[in-house]
Amino acid sequence: MERIPVAIIAATGSVGQRFVQLLDGHPWFEVVALTGSDGRVGQSYAETHWVLTDPMPEYARNLPVVPSTPEAANAPIVFSALPSKYATEIEANFARAGVGVFTNAGAYRRDPTVPILVPEVNAEQLALLPTQRKEKGWPGFIITNPNCTSMGMTVALKALDDAFGVRRAFSVSLQAISGAGYPGVASLDILDNVIPFIDGEEEKVEWEPRKMIGKVVDGTLQLANFQLSVHTNRVAVSDGHTVCLSVEFDREPSPAEAVEVLADYQAPESARDLPFTPRPVIFVHPDQDRPQPRLDRMTGKGMTTVVGRVRPDPLFHLKMVVLSHNTIRGAAGGSIYNAEVCVREGLIK
Amino acid sequence: MERIPVAIIAATGSVGQRFVQLLDGHPWFEVVALTGSDGRVGQSYAETHWVLTDPMPEYARNLPVVPSTPEAANAPIVFSALPSKYATEIEANFARAGVGVFTNAGAYRRDPTVPILVPEVNAEQLALLPTQRKEKGWPGFIITNPNCTSMGMTVALKALDDAFGVRRAFSVSLQAISGAGYPGVASLDILDNVIPFIDGEEEKVEWEPRKMIGKVVDGTLQLANFQLSVHTNRVAVSDGHTVCLSVEFDREPSPAEAVEVLADYQAPESARDLPFTPRPVIFVHPDQDRPQPRLDRMTGKGMTTVVGRVRPDPLFHLKMVVLSHNTIRGAAGGSIYNAEVCVREGLIK
Amino acid sequence: MERIPVAIIAATGSVGQRFVQLLDGHPWFEVVALTGSDGRVGQSYAETHWVLTDPMPEYARNLPVVPSTPEAANAPIVFSALPSKYATEIEANFARAGVGVFTNAGAYRRDPTVPILVPEVNAEQLALLPTQRKEKGWPGFIITNPNCTSMGMTVALKALDDAFGVRRAFSVSLQAISGAGYPGVASLDILDNVIPFIDGEEEKVEWEPRKMIGKVVDGTLQLANFQLSVHTNRVAVSDGHTVCLSVEFDREPSPAEAVEVLADYQAPESARDLPFTPRPVIFVHPDQDRPQPRLDRMTGKGMTTVVGRVRPDPLFHLKMVVLSHNTIRGAAGGSIYNAEVCVREGLIK
Amino acid sequence: MERIPVAIIAATGSVGQRFVQLLDGHPWFEVVALTGSDGRVGQSYAETHWVLTDPMPEYARNLPVVPSTPEAANAPIVFSALPSKYATEIEANFARAGVGVFTNAGAYRRDPTVPILVPEVNAEQLALLPTQRKEKGWPGFIITNPNCTSMGMTVALKALDDAFGVRRAFSVSLQAISGAGYPGVASLDILDNVIPFIDGEEEKVEWEPRKMIGKVVDGTLQLANFQLSVHTNRVAVSDGHTVCLSVEFDREPSPAEAVEVLADYQAPESARDLPFTPRPVIFVHPDQDRPQPRLDRMTGKGMTTVVGRVRPDPLFHLKMVVLSHNTIRGAAGGSIYNAEVCVREGLIK
Q1: Do residues B103 and B119 make contact, with C-beta atoms less than 8 angstroms apart?
Q2: Closest Cα to residue C236, out of D235, B182, D290, B239?
Q3: What is the residue-level pLDDT of chain A in tens, covering all 349 positions?
Q4: Are residues A259 and A195 in the same domain?
Q5: Inside any domain, residue C92
């Protein structure tokens, strides 16, 4: 089978590098172009200041950095690691040129016609694409990832919502420094410290899960009905966002019932058995002191949501801890999985 | 003025060392004895493996380690850093011998006749002592500290409860490694990691604030009426416990009203102007990314509760962040402050 | 091909766990027994407090913990993760029973008949085994690993010694916490800190490389002639020992000559193309700020020695930085490679 | 006594903030002006993003940020925290205007007429000032600090050189992140990591101690005769540079002799009993695992050089470990001490 050409937009930053890494040897996709800002165009990608722990893949070393335009990228699928402030315009250029854009940027997450896609949660929100095309007049389309902190908790909430109806939830995150990009958090700010503030993050995490778990009715997205309260913190962890979650349900489950529902949760048919499908979708860790980011973030190659400590909550119904790899599941890996679903669904020309 | 002789029980461990340090040069108290376990008795205290960042005070270097008995300690006030499993018996021995015991151990916190004393919160719970003496038949008495995580949030909740009536609160802690003693947390367990579990901690923190903010009616303590849900986490911070708090009130305050109440909160008359009185009792940090443990834990010489980020909560009424120094305010410094109140109240012979 | 049965002695500790992990799916060896201390015997290995970041392999979960005796282990090859104080006697028991013992313990490193084997450096020191068998009267044998800090620098020194003759070297280590086992270093001792002392370590690292690079003449080992001065430090790194090295040679090379020699260094014939042969033996990193433990420790699946910053030294001839994964190359992986060489050389019955 | 007006040049950066902090309440100096870059001029200093763990002193909150000119600063003494690239010109402007400039910048360290002043080492190098004034035609003068890594080791080497004659030394540093300023080192670069490279640092540290321990003969500075080889590393420590040192002498001392010489070392007469004189100049820590940055950096209010582990070296004569607080002793505190010496010596009008 011939692989589909794909390009990575803004490939030189830390999220861009994750795309470069995770697409190395992908069975369906072949990276044919890496784009960068004007100052980088014309350089070899090998000159990039590489910040990941595995070495730069060979294929990427030999590619030049090209401009972030549909012509230069020349691929029916692009993965975007653009900062949000540039994403609005550049990603629209690609969609207008007929390209399927899978982005990690937040620019379009609030757009009611753009799905925040997490295949195991809401593959059916691809039903928004006809609306998007019609409203925007784009032959291509844009699909976004959620914020990396929304990611894991939304997978857990979806499984629980299906079974018991989520009414409201408190959520406190302990987020990894890689979520702030590179150079991101200064070492003097985080060594022997916690920063109990991440600009704009709480607003995102209180809203995005409602969109993701919402329903598309007649081409229009309706937010899920539950309410969230979110505190976000930065801690001295390299990768892996930990979330403490207290949840109230329509119908109170026992911890054992919730564990069973979480452990048995399956992605919708269209999102199963793809190269980046998490295996399992949710892993419920049996130990009382897990999940922990250093030990559990790579579960399912970094794509699995890990849940632990499901126990009664004195105010709501259940407490639990949710862990998700923020730069794999919550960024590049998530976008790749999204693209795989779209290919299977015949949405890529 | 002649200083009152005091002894430190279990002076060689990490909390004992904090007592040794904080009592150096205390205007009212003179350390006359340091006790230790059988294996240490007879050694010079100078041989202790000292783990604090300031050097061992001179006065302590020259004291011998003596047994943990009232005879060897020979002082009307003792500060106890005993592990809970030894505290039940040994602390009772001291109280039975007429000594005022100020302890950091958890052994007696659940005893309805033993106050969990935080002077700026509940100095009036000293009214329990006559009941304690009568029921136990002790000429002396025992007064405990709260758990170090309960400490800061209880001070904040008390100020808010007085003004607006606390109904319920969610609380998620990010706790320093010093809270686990020495050697305590293995470095391999916390470097680049979070441990979302501390054995027995959540139960304590869900209950102790209700006792502390309770009322003594006719010599009997009545728990405060609010309910708490607590998640506890260990993070790579040396000192200073950070707590994310969402609170629901009887009467909803604006963030500005809550800030005013917190900033203006005063200790009861009997707890003011003592050597270890926190100055201020509560500091409300104006910056949006504070408090942070590394930057704010030493506020008020480590005795002040620091609050920040008071803001609306979508589910309850207000969110905020509370920081308290766990080994000063939440351990040794707290006990010393307790003893000062008792001296002023004439409870020490 | 049928796999050779092997046992892991002291399989429940942190080094034992690395053996369990690295032998999972080994093409030649099949783990048939896991031994532990008396208190663990009879338990399932699944009950072990697992400290590695990858999950416990399935094969191990189903094995019982058996006593550390040749009868219970019942395998011609054993990998020993025993603490040195137990190793002297227990490892001799195995050798006496005809078993080939590959050990990470230091007990026999000073024994002139026991090779400290690093195959790419001194596979020919297997010539000591006839002497060992004769002197000890053992039908089996013992082969040790070096200290984990000696490991990487010895590989680099060997390559350079062959080409230019090493005369003397200064070496300062920055060692990972995993080198102290589990629980090992207390977190309070290493957060925001350096410990410039590791008990007994400097003596080992000043001597072992001389034995490893020594020659076997008529069945007797002659130490290499160079002299070393070593400072050892513990730093807040999980895995990977970094060594700063200044070397004086018989014949001064340019940095470029040294780089070429290092990069071209090959293991002796008998140590090539084995499952655990490092690929490459030495990687010379081209960047000016490398090697770094977090980025480079997994080079060659953790078996490769990474060298960087080869540059002139104002006192000796060359300065450089050497990195080696202390629990893979410097412990379990090293022993497995040693066993592979012995199988190929026909030393296992 | 009236205090001398002083200004801090580039007061808003991390070194500038240390000056602001350490000059709070200084008995001789009163800060009358804080300068900053053009973008900051006119703002209140209270708007500075403060990065130190103690709060911003009150006096500074009320000062405006003024331009870095002699007119705006209007003080006979200025402390400069300028980056080196701006220091060359701006510091000369001040000296030309008759001001005594005490700088942390490296711009003039190589100038043969500018002393790298460490009062306890080389107060007599003030004898260079007449030469400086003559050659430059400045009514004022410039005096620099050494690089923060040179600092502690030079104090130790000076004491040893006086007694035994230093011939050569190997030095490997483990440097704190605060040495790189703010934001400085990215947290992703140093968490669970070591960076074995600091740009330009090794060259400085190999040369500066020779200048500092040199002699002024007829107004000309002669470098000390010894040779140094230096490796520099960045580690995950907030403050405090640790240096492993191996030293060869003209006359070999025993470790005990060296300890005695170090512990007894006194500053020259003119540098004693000043407000910032380190007390003691050198502290020789008796424990085998010290000095450690977290435990020992604040010795003598951060001004003392702490030495430990003095022991025989197999290649040279002695090994030891030296610790110095890089932002107090090695930066702002050092400059203040320098200014105090100049005031006492009558060099300030």
Answers
A1: no
A2: D235
A3: 799 999 999 999 999 999 999 999 999 999 999 999 999 999 999 999 988 888 899 999 999 999 999 999 999 999 999 999 999 999 999 999 999 999 999 999 999 999 999 999 999 999 999 999 999 999 999 999 999 999 999 999 999 999 999 999 999 999 999 999 999 999 999 999 999 999 999 999 999 999 999 999 999 999 999 999 999 999 999 999 999 999 999 999 999 999 999 999 999 999 999 999 999 999 999 999 999 999 999 999 999 999 999 999 999 999 999 999 999 999 999 999 999 999 999 999 7
A4: yes
A5: yes
Domain membership of residue A349 (yes or no) is no
What subunits make at least 3 CB pairs under 8 angstroms with D? A, B, C
Residue C209, min C-alpha distance to chain A (Å):
29
Token readout for D260 is 């005695």
Please give the residue range of the domain that contains residue B265: 148-325
Q: How far is CA D34 from the centre of its chain?
A: 20
Q: Helix crossing, C255-264 with C148-164: angle to 10°?
A: 110
The backbone torsions φ and ψ at residue B284, rounded to the nearest 5 degrees and listed phi first, read -95, 110
Search chain B and give the residue with CA nearest C239: B188
Nearest to B190 among C182, C184, C187 (CB): C187
Give how far Cα D106 sits from Cα of D23, D86, D90, D94, D157, Å.
22, 11, 13, 16, 21
Considering its fold, how many domains does chain A have in total? 2
Instruction: Judge if C172 and C308 occupy the same domain.
Output: yes
In the set C26, C148, C231, C325, the catalytic residue is: C148
How many CA atoms does the CB half-sphere of B311 hold within 13 Å?
18
Nearest to C191 among A53, A192, A299 (CB): A192
Name the closest residue on chain A to residue B321, using Cα atoms: A196
Which residues, including other chains, have CB under 8 Å from residue B256's CB and lie 6 or more apart? none
Inside any domain, residue B93 = yes
Is B244 marked active-site? no
DSSP assignment of B196-265, as one string? ---TTHHHHHHHHHHHHT-EEETTEEE--S-EEEEEEEE-S-SS-EEEEEEEEESSPPPHHHHHHHHHH-
Residue B63 lies in a domain: yes
Residue partners of A32: CB distance under 8 A and separation at least 6:
A5, A6, A7, A74, A75
- The catalytic residue among C49, C241, C285, C325 is C241
Q: In terms of CA atoms, which chain D residue is nearest residue C229?
A: D314
Tell me whether residues A294 and C53 touch, CB distance under 8 A.
Answer: yes
- Assess C189–B contact: CB distance below 8 Å, yes or no: yes
Report the length, in residues, of chain D: 349
Residues 281-310 of D with CB under 8 A from A: none
> Are D99 and D173 contained in the same domain?
no
